[in-house]
Inverse folding.
């Protein structure tokens, strides 16, 4: 028999079938509870016909290949198959009502089954799609490969320019304070610099294949499309430790300017629509293309975190930043060579973080994103300029956005960890799941104890409220030794009530 004859036969995914059976049971109890049965019928009468409905549902689902495992199946593809399954099963179950002279079953119940099953399964697909597409934060050092440091780069003299005209142009375009700042780090009149007043990616890429000691962008980044590509090609045109200087209007500066410019109430309305149009719409897949066609990408809203993070992502180290005439100027130094042009990273609302679980196994821990995009690249820079405050957190962490502060205050950002709880990878009380890098900072004794137990949603930190990294380790060590001596259940119950007290009465916040 040919392969084509077997096109409807495949090995189904057992987990997909089990999920369907669970949803079918939920659907039947939900519909019967919501839709009142007639006086002629009762719930027991529906048991047999429910079996029939479930059998047809599973058969049609199999034939329409809903149980076929495909790793890259899209959400839209799954919904399409689900719709046809619901339609076919409902059509089959409708036939008896069309030809039967008497019927003790309610037609409305079976319509409810199909609608409820479609809705519940759609919700499951949405959750599944969200989890699968969660953004994975990787260690910065592993984000992209670097080219060899001794890569041959051609250096040659640039065309002779009139230094006085160049100086006057920079001062006229950016102001005297900006020129003074630039002069502190590079010689703007050097013939080996590349100074751009447009900062267009193709303009920079089309420059001769040679090395520039420094590249300076005087046009604000808010007007430029493809910032990562611009930084990437700049990286390839300057030597190691060469400088890149750029400027941008930050989100906070723009907000302050709008609120100060217009009368109260009107100013917040204008800011809201400005934010939606120039910040939200450019990031939505459906409206992004239309926005750039209309505006050419001019005057977009950029956060400070996003710009600095992009620079680090593209192989630069932040030397300093300074606000001049409403623009933030950034001096960056190249610290690694790129062997490719980096495109924009896509950030969703859900994060997937690699963390160490029980027995040292790496697990994906889920959280809602509370920081601006590219925040993960600025941890070292934040530590350098702000250091740590009590509890081991960074002082004045500008990477956290407004919604993120709200979510952290009320523990909303922690809710996706329930996925790990349901998977059996975490428990309610336990030490925090750590990254491998952070785990390496702990003492050997604590490391050995940590991996003997599952990590938890509520760490002992919130019972003891330590203030330094050493105190945090002492707190965890005390908890883990209690687990050894008194048992996990007794210890977790004790710590649960201590944590509850501190969260409710001492207003402890999410880490």
């Amino acid at each position: 028999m040919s392969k084509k004859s077997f096109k409807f036969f495949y090995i189904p995914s057992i987990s997909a079938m089990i999920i369907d059976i669970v949803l079918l049971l939920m659907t039947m109890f939900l519909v019967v509870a919501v839709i009142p049965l007639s006086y002629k019928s009762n719930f027991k009468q529906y048991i047999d016909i429910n079996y029939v409905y479930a059998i047809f549902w599973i058969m049609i689902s199999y034939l329409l290949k809903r149980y076929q495992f495909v790793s890259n199946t899209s959400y839209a593809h799954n919904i399409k198959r689900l719709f046809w399954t619901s339609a076919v099963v409902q059509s089959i179950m409708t036939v008896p009502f069309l030809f039967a002279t008497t019927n003790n079953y309610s037609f409305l119940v079976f319509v409810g089954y199909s609608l409820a099953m479609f809705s519940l399964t759609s919700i499951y697909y949405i959750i599944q799609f969200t989890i699968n597409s969660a953004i994975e934060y990787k260690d910065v050092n592993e984000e992209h490969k670097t080219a060899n440091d001794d890569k041959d780069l051609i250096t040659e003299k640039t065309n002779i320019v009139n230094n006085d005209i160049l100086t006057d142009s920079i001062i006229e375009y950016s102001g005297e304070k900006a020129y003074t700042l630039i002069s502190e780090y590079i010689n703007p009149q050097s013939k080996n610099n590349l100074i751009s007043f447009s900062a267009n990616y193709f303009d920079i890429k089309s420059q001769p294949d040679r090395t520039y000691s420094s590249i300076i962008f005087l046009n604000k980044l808010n007007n430029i499309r493809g910032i990562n590509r611009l930084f990437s090609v700049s990286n390839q045109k300057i030597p190691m430790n060469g400088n890149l200087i750029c400027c941008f209007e930050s989100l906070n500066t723009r907000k302050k300017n709008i609120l100060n410019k217009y009368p109260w109430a009107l100013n917040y309305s204008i800011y809201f629509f400005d934010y939606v149009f120039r910040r939200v719409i450019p990031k939505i897949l459906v409206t992004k293309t239309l926005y750039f066609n209309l505006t050419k990408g001019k005057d977009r809203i950029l956060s400070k975190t996003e710009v600095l993070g992009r620079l680090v992502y593209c192989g630069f180290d932040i030397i300093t930043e300074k606000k001049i005439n409403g623009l933030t100027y950034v001096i960056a130094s190249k610290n690694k060579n790129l062997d490719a042009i980096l495109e924009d990273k896509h950030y969703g609302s859900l994060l997937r973080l690699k963390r160490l679980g029980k027995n040292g196994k790496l697990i994906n821990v889920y959280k809602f994103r509370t920081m601006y995009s590219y925040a993960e690249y600025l941890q070292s820079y934040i530590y350098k300029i702000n250091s740590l405050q009590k509890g081991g957190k960074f002082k004045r962490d500008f990477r956290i956005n407004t919604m993120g502060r709200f979510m952290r205050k009320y523990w909303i950002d922690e809710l996706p960890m329930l996925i790990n709880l349901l998977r059996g990878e975490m428990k309610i009380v336990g030490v925090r799941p750590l990254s491998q890098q952070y785990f390496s900072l702990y003492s050997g004794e604590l490391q050995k104890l940590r991996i003997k137990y599952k990590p938890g949603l509520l760490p002992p930190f919130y019972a003891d409220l330590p203030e330094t990294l050493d105190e945090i380790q002492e707190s965890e060590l005390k908890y883990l030794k209690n687990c050894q001596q008194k048992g996990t259940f007794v210890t977790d119950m004790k710590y649960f009530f201590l944590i509850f007290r501190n969260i409710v009465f001492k207003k402890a916040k999410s880490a």
Remarks:
- Residues 1-6, 141-161 have pLDDT under 50 and may be disordered.
- The chain is about 50% helix and 10% strand.
